[in-house]
Amino acid sequence: MLVLTEIPGAKPAPASSPGPSQVAFEVPSRPQLARFARHYRESHPDGDLRDHLVSESC
């Protein structure tokens, strides 16, 4: 499980900073990755799955 929490009073990052763009979870096999991708596409039709040639991410 992933939990994101706000730090009260934290200053925004500068506009030039990369910021968070993805979260990666390791799966033990490509068949399990395929099952996750199918589930993700069905539950998040506007989501974005990408193959970065060295890893897959969403």
Automatic annotation (TrEMBL):
Name assigned to this protein: Catechol 2,3-dioxygenase
GO molecular function: dioxygenase activity
The species this protein was found in: Amycolatopsis saalfeldensis
Biased composition (Low complexity): 8-21
Keywords on record: Dioxygenase, Oxidoreductase
Ranges where the record places region Disordered: 1-27
Superkingdom as given in the UniProt entry: Bacteria
